[in-house]
Design goal:
This protein is an all-alpha fold. The chain is built from 20 helices and no strands. The protein has a domain at 65-169 and 196-215 and 228-324. Helices cover 75% and strands 0% of the residues.
Length: 471
């Protein structure tokens, strides 16, 4: 039996459709998200006070969930500002200019490096590591900052995270839910990941070049800055000239990448993943910031460390300001709802988003083609909470359900749901999920999401059609 849907489910779904429509129309969704939280709170508590306090508490919840990402972005930006003001950044990227000489090479070069790096320790730390080094090179050869963000985002949070062949977090979750060996789900996902990756990235690159030629390209820069690289933007908060001797500058340009490579090695040796891996990168960036600032500013170094940190934090919270209300609404689709408003959903409920996915699976005709379409749609719906991972267990169980009912390949349907959920929620369409790439490149996360919508939807359609022949 399916989950009994309530008014809360239908209202949440209606707001999701409205929000998605506004995003496609390039309109701001903050007010609508606040209204959605208020209405859901009213339905859950049946009191004005409960719905009003629910709005504030949902903001607090979202901020807690996003704080790790806010901090890593802020610290990386602070570190990069001192590297830029001292010229170390310029020295670091000089050797790479011989490889990334055109926008084409920069787009695909950044993307492939991001994909490989993300396979080993997931995309958010990878964005922080390679953004500092490769973004200035890409901009110098003519690739827009938004184009670099698209490459990092699609290859990292899309291809690498949806396949997850090294860390294997995603395939393990879906395989366990479907009662399948992890290896079978990974093997089944290979053609789907290839099709999705190729179609999406080629489409995104073609659309970018087309819009540039037609003069309709929008850079999406934060605050309308001319410098596409937020990491290289001049800091208004830091006073005083940062000077480092040329020889020392060269040594630091060598040592800093080695430190980050040591982080990569540490992730392997210590088996660090996700938040722990991000924390290692963030802590390294803090020490680099402190040491370089003290060397560059000498007797004013103590004060300038604080100034750089304030500058980075100001940037981080400025970027996340419009994202928190939207994240607050979508987090209500998962465990946040019960935490904020109590257990008002049906007893068998697994959260609003997962309930909608289960209801869909129980109300469509059962055959292989419909099973593939349903697996894709269900994965996409569960990805709307922005984590990408919260609903992939549901994708696995639904894949098994359709496979048993239609005698289809359970591993392929499970892998398809996994790919769909992570491409939508893991960081290519939901604005706050793709914050790392957007913030590192100094572009609007909403503009990045808009640029990704058509390529990702086209990719999902083509991948679903391919899956129909594989099941």
């Amino acid at each position: 039996m399916g989950i009994q849907l309530t008014a809360l489910h239908y209202v949440y779904l209606a707001f999701i459709v409205f929000i998605m429509a506004l995003l496609i129309k390039r309109r701001d969704t903050t007010m609508i998200c606040i209204a959605g939280i208020f209405v859901l709170g009213w339905l859950a508590t049946e009191t004005v006070s409960g719905s009003v306090t629910g709005v504030f508490n949902s903001f607090v919840y979202a901020t807690k969930e996003l704080m790790g990402t806010i901090m890593i972005i802020s610290i990386i930006v602070a570190m990069s500002r001192v590297l830029t003001s001292t010229g170390i950044n310029e020295t670091m990227v000089a050797p790479l200019t011989r490889f990334l000489r055109t926008p084409f090479m920069a787009f695909w070069g950044i993307g492939l490096i991001m994909m490989v790096t993300s396979w080993f320790f997931w995309p958010s730390p990878a964005v922080a590591l390679i953004g500092v080094v490769l973004l200035p090179v890409a901009i110098r050869v003519g690739l827009p900052a938004l184009g670099a963000a698209i490459a990092m985002n699609l290859f990292g949070h899309g291809i690498a995270l949806s396949s997850d062949y090294i860390i294997q977090g995603a395939p393990k979750l879906t395989a366990d839910a479907a009662g399948l060996p992890v290896s079978s789900v990974m093997e089944a996902s290979i053609p789907l990941v290839i099709v999705m990756g190729v179609v999406t990235t080629v489409t995104a690159y073609w659309m970018m070049r087309r819009d540039q030629k037609n003069g309709t390209w929008r850079d999406g820069l934060i605050s309308g800055k001319n410098a596409g690289n937020a990491l290289a933007a001049e800091s208004d908060a830091v006073e005083g000239q940062a000077v480092i001797a040329p020889t020392l500058k060269k040594w630091l340009a060598i040592i800093i990448p080695i430190l980050f490579l040591a982080d990569v090695a540490g992730m392997f040796l210590l088996d660090l993943q996700g938040g722990d891996a991000t924390a290692l990168v963030g802590g390294t960036a803090v020490f680099i910031l402190v040491v370089v600032t003290l060397l560059a500013h000498r007797n004013k170094g103590l004060e300038q460390v604080t100034s750089y940190l304030i500058d980075g934090l100001t940037f981080g919270f400025k970027v996340f300001g419009p994202v928190i209300p939207i994240a607050a609404f979508f987090y209500l689709g998962d465990s946040a709802f019960a935490e904020l408003f109590g257990k008002v959903l049906p007893a068998a409920s697994q959260g609003i988003v997962n309930d909608l996915g289960v209801a869909l699976a129980h109300n469509v005709p059962l055959n292989g083609a419909v099973g593939a379409v349903t697996a894709t749609i269900t994965g996409a719906i569960t990805g709307l909470d922005g984590s990408g991972f919260s609903g992939i267990s549901l994708a696995g169980s639904i894949g098994k359900l359709f496979a048993v009912a239609t005698h289809s390949d359970a591993a392929t349907l499970t892998a398809l749901g996994q790919v769909s959920a992570i491409w939508v929620g893991g960081g290519t369409l939901i604005p706050w999920a793709l914050i790392p790439a957007a913030a590192i490149c100094g572009v609007s996360p909403f503009e990045l999401a808009r640029r990704n919508v058509k390529p990702v939807l086209i990719g999902l359609i083509v991948t679903t059609i391919v899956a129909m022949f594989l099941v």
